[in-house]
Amino acid sequence: MLTAIFFPVLLGVVLLLMPEFSSRKNLLAITGAGLVITGILAFCALGVGDAEILLLSLEEKMKITFCLDDLGRIFTVIVTIVWVLAGFYSFEYMKHEKEEKRYFGFYLMSFGVLLALNFAGNIVTYYLFYELMTLLSMPLVLHSKTKEAIMGGLKYLFYSLCGAYMVLMGVFFAGKYADTLRFQAGGTLNMELAAGNEKVLLIVVFFMILGFGVKAGMFPMHAWLPTAHPVAPAPASAVLSGLIVKAGVLGIIRTVYFLFGASFIRGTWVQTAWLSLTLITVFMGSMLAYREKVMKKRLAYSTVSQVSYILFGLALLQPQAMTGALLHVVFHAFIKSALFLSAGAIIYKTGRTNIDDMTGIGKEMPVTIWCYTFASLALIGIPPASGFISKWHLALGALQSGTGIFTWLGPVILLISALLTAGYLLPITIKGFLPGADFDYKNLQKREPNLLITIPLFIFAALSVLLGIFPNPLTAYIQGIVSTVL
User: Fold this and answer.
1) pLDDT for the residue 50
2) Which phi-psi region, left, alpha or beta, contains residue 401 (left: φ > 0; alpha: ψ -120 to 50)?
3) If you average pLDDT over residues 49-70, what whole number do you get?
4) 15-24, 139-148, 433-442, range with the lowest pLDDT
5) Across residues 360-367, what is the average pLDDT?
6) 73: pLDDT strictly greater than 80
7) Residues facing residue 63 across a β-bridge
8) What is the DSSP secondary-structure string of 354-367?
9) In which region does residue 217 sit, left (phi positive, over 0), alpha (psi from -120 to 50) or beta (all else)?
10) Residue 471, SS3?
């Protein structure tokens, strides 16, 4: 585990400190080797048992420890697959960008830090690497150094730090009222110590949910996503949308289910407020995506909506809903990576960024648009694609949750959001393949990108569909996790 964390971080530092490469091939060879080796190390770490590794001890409860559990294994797999494939996609895409050495240096370091989050054994370790993740991923956002990119990066940093300080307050309180800060299924809150302080602790939990919810794009701290995603290079947008927002999701899971315990907030105002915010975000994100004309910004608003599907399932505190939420963590990572990489391929080959300019794009880039289409169908929730499976569990979990108005309101809003998702994703496919009789077929050009772009895109699109056709192994694994915490 430690090697998987620190190898890419050190390699990224070395890349940043080295002088400019005389040949681009050397830079890509080092980066590619780093991605592959880190991926192998991460997968090897999956076989490590539940033993805790102590890296540093400051005091009894302030320890930097790593311990890989089943939940961490799921996040490790999706981080590794997405990060490696998007990295190889970057080899071609970043040709038209400057300062590639800086990009790949921070890309490698961010990979190691994300793995550290998945391996974190307690909330102190998680918080430390959570902050590092923000600092190391920000250069990916402002890479182009345009005014828009710099402002997007600063907005990302400001929002993230505000959220992190909310979490930090919760860490202090947890240190006083929890038996241990180590993640433990069911929570570690000492109810005897907490007696008489429940109101304060509920406020603390709510602030921690809001704090981690910043990274997950939950209303009202969602505005950084549609600002940061469009200005970042497409492969950076893919990992931001597919993975980095999931760091906020994982932080919420660790806080609610492994630190304070789901039973502590069940039936309280915290659960009601959390459910309300998630449904507001689902509907608002879908509406804003539907109205947006810039493709990458539309996909960013889509992420705002779709990640709150996950948060809604977690907020229900119900086994089937949590199963659906964790399934959507996996499915959304692959689906949204496919969508953003499709957008990147279009931008790279045509320079088009506006939805209105996509007429006939399917005739010019059929492989890319077919991949985009299959990923879109999965995100909408069309069976048998993967999104249908996770949304089915979310809807059934809501109906069985006994949460009052949210029992029926949740499925209704999820259905409305699915219709809006179809409304903002499928027009690109329809206009792309059916441009109409007025389309100028004589000047049609084949613009399909090379294999470094199309292979990762094809893999993500295939996973988006195949995980829906064969969901049982993953579902059974996730249900095992859910049964330990609920």
Assistant:
1) 75
2) alpha
3) 84
4) 433-442
5) 89
6) yes
7) 57
8) BGGG-TTHHHH-HH
9) left
10) coil
Question: How is residue 298 written in tokens?
Answer: 């539309």
Closest of 302, 304, 473 to residue 376, by C-alpha: 302
User: Given this model, what pLDDT does residue 18 score?
Assistant: 86
Structural tokens at position 417: 């959001």
Which DSSP string do the residues of 434-464 spell out, in sequence order?
---TTS--TT-------HHHHHHHHHHHHHH
DSSP 382-406: -TTSHHHHHHHHHHHHHHTS--TTH
User: Dihedral of CA 108/113/117/119: which sign?
Assistant: positive
**What sign results for the dihedral spanned by CA atoms 227, 232, 237, 243?**
negative
Instruction: Report the distance separating Cα 241 and Cα 156, nearest Å.
Output: 13
Both tokens assigned to 429: 């496919």
Residues 118 and 5: their CA atoms lie apart, in Å, by: 10
Residue 393 clears pLDDT 90, i.e. is over it: yes
Q: What angle do CA 259, 482, 421 make, to 5 degrees?
A: 100
3-state secondary structure of 56: strand
404 alpha-carbon distance from chain centroid = 30
Whole-number Å distance between alpha carbons of 415 and 396: 13
* Strand residues in 48-131 grouped as ranges (E): 53-57, 63-66
Exposed, middle or buried: residue 1 (CB in 10 Å: 0-12, 13-18, 19+)?
buried
Least trusted range by pLDDT, from 256-260, 333-337, 355-359: 355-359
The residue whose two tokens read 């005897």 is 192
Average pLDDT of 359-382?
Answer: 92
Residues constituting the chain: 486
How confident is residue 462, by pLDDT bands cut at 50, 70 and 90?
Answer: very high
* Residue 193, CA distances (Å) to 63, 197, 209, 230, 313 in order: 22, 8, 22, 47, 30
* Burial group, residue 382, by CB count within 10 angstroms (0-12, 13-18, 19+): middle
132's CB contacts (< 8 A; 6+ apart) are: 113, 116
